[in-house]
Write a structure and sequence with these properties.
Largest sheet: 6 strands, antiparallel
CATH topology: Thiol Ester Dehydrase, Chain A
Order of helices and strands: EHEEEEEH
Oligomer: single chain
Length: 126
């Protein structure tokens, strides 16, 4: 798993329990995974298709720094799938894990579109 971006947990990111709001974390994950999909498929025309079960393992508090990790899983004709893990950068304690995040390349009419990228191309560029 490679970790790509880091976030500082600030007051606006907290829930009523004064821990990281899950919605904020999912927004960051979706954005980071979307950018990763764009770079792997060489297009900015991708949409989130599916996010599997989300496992909240631990919480994060104000002042914590987290990092978002992504790992290539598989490629389809129009799609690409990743695994995700978020951890505290200092303690390395996992905060969240997601087994599958799927993105699909779309055309100008927002229909799925073949991307032409192979598993070999992805693995040679990781």
């Amino acid at each position: 798993m490679k970790y790509y971006s880091r976030k500082l947990i600030k007051p606006g990111d907290l829930n009523a329990n004064n821990t990281l709001f899950g919605g904020a974390l999912l927004r960051w994950i979706d954005e980071e995974a979307g950018i990763y999909a764009m770079t792997k498929l060489n297009t900015n025309k991708v949409v989130t298709k599916y996010i599997s079960e989300i496992n909240f393992v631990a919480s994060a508090k104000q002042g914590d720094v987290i990092e978002i990790g992504l790992e290539f899983q598989e490629i389809g004709n129009t799609s690409i799938t990743f695994k995700c893990s978020v951890r505290n950068i200092f303690s390395k304690k996992e905060i969240i894990s997601i087994d599958q995040i799927v993105f699909v390349k779309i055309d100008k009419n927002e229909n799925p579109s073949a991307h032409g990228v192979t598993k070999e191309i992805i693995l040679n560029n990781i």
